[in-house]
């Protein structure tokens, strides 16, 4: 995947650049401590933003994300500065392999850049979003975004034209062959060939040419471009890109009937000490080696390389899933920590009114965490947005009907919005699958209850007050059944927390009356009949009765599109 975000990796920094960013980090940490002591929020925001940028470039992106998300809370209303902060935070997520979160942050940054009327930043963010579209498998969206960026750069004579041209060429090559614009690709390849010898991108342009020529069935031109690209990429510290182009270099030799040269090249690349530190490129080299030895008839060696390719690919996918969950956990703990810091400033202030005001602020922050995490889950599954909001509102209505105090009913409804937050940790290939699930995939989906509870009870999050603890309880119990046949703990009857029992009913009702790729929408009457039929087995009879009463008198919240 090509990257245009302001990311930096330690092996791409010169000694002078590393020393510069280490000094920036030290200065920012000193300034942030001073700002916290004096309560100067604007200075704290600027220091945290600098600290996050330095940490990103020093390869400490998890720490960078903490600093950047905290800086946003203290920034003023300058849309350009906010856009830069969110773009830097997207970079941290990308370095942590959290592609979906990076896309969410980039979309926000683009809206802010448009508010600021800053054309250069808008164009860079369009390229960034295209990269994330490609990473998430939406190649058509990536192509459309890059074409728009390329058009605007030409129209307004903006810098970065060649880089966008490189990325559009590579992305169009990822389209299925029937949809690949061969004529346009041929024209762009000619344009790149003319630019590459004089272009400051150097190795990137030659690497794109090598890849394009292979797809356009011109291995001789691909061989020449790859030979130009590799030394330029290594000289500029782009080790990953250099390893990647070596796979294309070997394939060009193979297509030209030069298997010995391909073998020598791949063996050298696989011996490179940097290869194991870059799993994606390492896997690509093993795949190319498998193709080579299969063509040579050395099937045992081909099979060994193919196994290595699949193992590296599997390990990388697991790492992506773990990092996605950890980043979401960090969001929860961060907001609590930030507000605890503000409260500590007032520890010696004995005025009850001020203490109450700060307590209310903490409660508002908890609600902000609920909204943030609910939005993160909604972003991964578009229909989930109106669903989680309706489930929350309906939970409040049912709780009030059952006699809960208004304040508790409101907390139940807010916490209910996070009933499916554990789906953040479910791979997209399973969560967004349109067809039927395998038993193993259903088991993975079912794990979202425990994942959600774990996410909301991490150190720091568990100290955030009863609202997050209530949300964790609902996330864990909303698939339990009245007769004990549910999961994950097979709880029965009133052993199931009230919030879980209510959400079990309202969640099922909304799912039944909503259209999904695998089923049409049921009518309200059909859904209510189903709930009543299974009251006392799957569902708490009192919750089913309450929902039916509210529906009969128009007391349920309105549903989008209803």
Automatic annotation (TrEMBL):
<dbReference type="InterPro" id="IPR037522">
    <property type="entry name" value="HD_GYP_dom"/>
</dbReference>
<dbReference type="Pfam" id="PF13487">
    <property type="entry name" value="HD_5"/>
</dbReference>
<feature type="domain" description="HD-GYP">
    <location>
        <begin position="362"/>
        <end position="562"/>
    </location>
</feature>
<dbReference type="InterPro" id="IPR052020">
    <property type="entry name" value="Cyclic_di-GMP/3'3'-cGAMP_PDE"/>
</dbReference>
<dbReference type="InterPro" id="IPR003607">
    <property type="entry name" value="HD/PDEase_dom"/>
</dbReference>
<protein>
    <recommendedName>
        <fullName>HD-GYP domain-containing protein</fullName>
    </recommendedName>
</protein>
<dbReference type="InterPro" id="IPR011990">
    <property type="entry name" value="TPR-like_helical_dom_sf"/>
</dbReference>
<dbReference type="InterPro" id="IPR019734">
    <property type="entry name" value="TPR_rpt"/>
</dbReference>
């Amino acid at each position: 995947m090509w990257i245009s975000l302001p990311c930096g990796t330690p092996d791409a920094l010169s000694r002078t650049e590393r020393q510069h960013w280490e000094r920036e980090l030290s200065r920012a940490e000193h300034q942030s401590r001073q700002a916290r002591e004096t309560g100067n929020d604007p200075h704290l925001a600027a220091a945290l933003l600098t600290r996050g940028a330095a940490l990103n470039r020093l390869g400490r992106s998890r720490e960078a994300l903490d600093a950047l998300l905290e800086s946003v809370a203290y920034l003023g209303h300058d849309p350009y500065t906010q856009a830069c902060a969110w773009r830097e935070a997207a970079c941290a997520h990308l370095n942590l392999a959290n592609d979906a979160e990076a896309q969410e942050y980039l979309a926000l940054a683009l809206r802010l850049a448009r508010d600021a009327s800053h054309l250069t930043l808008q164009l860079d963010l369009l390229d960034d979003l295209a990269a994330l579209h490609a990473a998430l498998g939406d190649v058509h969206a990536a192509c459309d975004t890059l074409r728009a960026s390329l058009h605007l750069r030409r129209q307004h004579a903006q810098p970065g034209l060649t880089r966008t041209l490189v990325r559009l060429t590579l992305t169009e090559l990822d389209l299925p062959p029937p949809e690949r614009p061969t004529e346009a690709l041929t024209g762009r390849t000619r344009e790149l060939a003319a630019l590459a010898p004089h272009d400051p991108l150097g190795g990137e342009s030659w690497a794109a040419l090598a890849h394009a020529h292979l797809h356009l069935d011109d291995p001789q031109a691909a061989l020449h471009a790859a030979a130009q690209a590799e030394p330029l990429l290594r000289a500029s510290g782009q080790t990953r890109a250099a390893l990647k182009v070596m796979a294309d270099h070997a394939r060009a030799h193979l297509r030209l009937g030069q298997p010995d040269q391909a073998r020598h090249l791949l063996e050298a690349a696989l011996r490179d000490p940097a290869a194991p530190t870059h799993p994606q490129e390492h896997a690509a080299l093993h795949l190319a080696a498998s193709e080579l030895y299969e063509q040579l008839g050395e099937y045992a060696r081909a099979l060994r390389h193919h196994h290595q390719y699949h193992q590296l690919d599997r390990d990388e996918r697991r790492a992506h899933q773990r990092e996605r969950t950890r980043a979401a956990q960090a969001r929860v703990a961060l907001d609590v920590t930030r507000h605890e810091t503000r409260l500590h400033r007032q520890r010696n202030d004995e005025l009850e009114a001020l203490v109450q005001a700060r307590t209310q602020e903490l409660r508002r922050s908890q609600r902000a965490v609920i909204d943030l995490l609910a939005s993160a889950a909604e972003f991964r599954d578009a229909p989930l947005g109106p669903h989680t909001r309706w489930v929350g509102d309906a939970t409040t209505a049912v709780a009030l009907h059952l006699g809960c105090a208004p304040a508790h009913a409101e907390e139940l409804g807010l916490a209910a919005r996070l009933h499916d937050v554990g789906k953040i940790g479910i791979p997209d290939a399973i969560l967004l699958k349109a067809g039927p699930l395998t038993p193993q995939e259903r088991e993975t989906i079912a794990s979202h209850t425990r994942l959600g509870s774990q996410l909301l009870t991490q150190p720091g999050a568990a100290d955030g007050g009863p609202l997050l603890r209530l949300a964790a309880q609902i996330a864990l119990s909303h698939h339990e059944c009245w007769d004990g046949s549910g999961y994950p703990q097979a709880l029965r009857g009133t052993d199931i927390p009230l919030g879980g029992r209510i959400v079990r009913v309202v969640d099922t009702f909304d799912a039944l009356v909503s259209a999904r790729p695998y089923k049409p929408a049921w009518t309200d009457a059909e859904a209510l009949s189903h709930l009543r039929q299974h009251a006392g087995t799957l569902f708490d009879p009192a919750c089913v009765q309450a929902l039916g009463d509210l529906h009969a008198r128009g007391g349920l919240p309105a549903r989008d599109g209803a």
